[in-house]
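Quick log. Single chain, no ligands specified.
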Amino acid sequence: MRGVPQGGETDSETGQPGNCRPVAADPVRVSAELDQLEHRCCEGQQPGDEVQDGLASTGGQRPEHRQDQQDHGRHGTFDVGDEVVGLAMEDVSNGTYAELVTAPAAALVSKPGNMEFTTAAAVPLAGLTAAQAVSGEGLAISSGETVLVHAAAGGVGTFAVQLARRTGARVIGTASPRNADYLRSLGAEPVEYGDGLVERVRELAPDGVDAALDLAGGEALDQSAELLRDPLRLISAVDPRVFQLGGRMIQAHPNRGQLEELLDLVSKGDVHVEIAEVLPLDRVARAHDVIAEGHVRGKLVLDLTA
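-> predicted structure:
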């Protein structure tokens, strides 16, 4: 069994992934096919500090042990060989990539039969973060509102734009110029991030925006505060300074109903999942370098079978 501990560390001499740490016992042990990476590095943090979030998504797995009988009827039953998808961050406290991992049955759902593991692996963490940010437990986006999404072409941003649009909201998304057409294809109105962003957004929305989702951190928070009509409708997934501005943080948590809905939307083609690149486990260090460089469109996925 191969595994990589937090930070994507590899053996200093061989350059190969290190040994997998044990994780807490749980009803279901799964053989992971793929895992996603998520960049959550803000000012004052170092690349790799985001690992416990990025490793939480254990999408694309095959159970090796049947769950306990006490879970029957409450969370459904998974048999050996079933293809499942889930968010198991509660039990991987410091982060890991591994071929085998335990996960609570309540965090797992069946993978749609028409969905590739690569796509499935990219859904749980990014999709649930976006869904919970857009829904009533987050910004409570509703039809007719104008929403500002920072880093809109990234993994979470791609989901957030589409889910907000499905509510009937207008979405303004920040990104680099090369991603402008991509954001338009998702239904967002693109604006270039950086200096002058506030003025560019006001050209599209003279009265400001109703809500803002920060997936970039730093100056994006201050710019959001200038543009918001209600400072309380500011959420960040990456920068705790949001509390100083009257907003709040959001971190995805397992929700089977939301995950099943997301997978259904993706399997029907109603929500697009953008895969930037699929890399083997022994290139995890390269994957983190790519993330640290920024400007990744969509998700990076690790192939744990390669």
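The mean pLDDT is 79.
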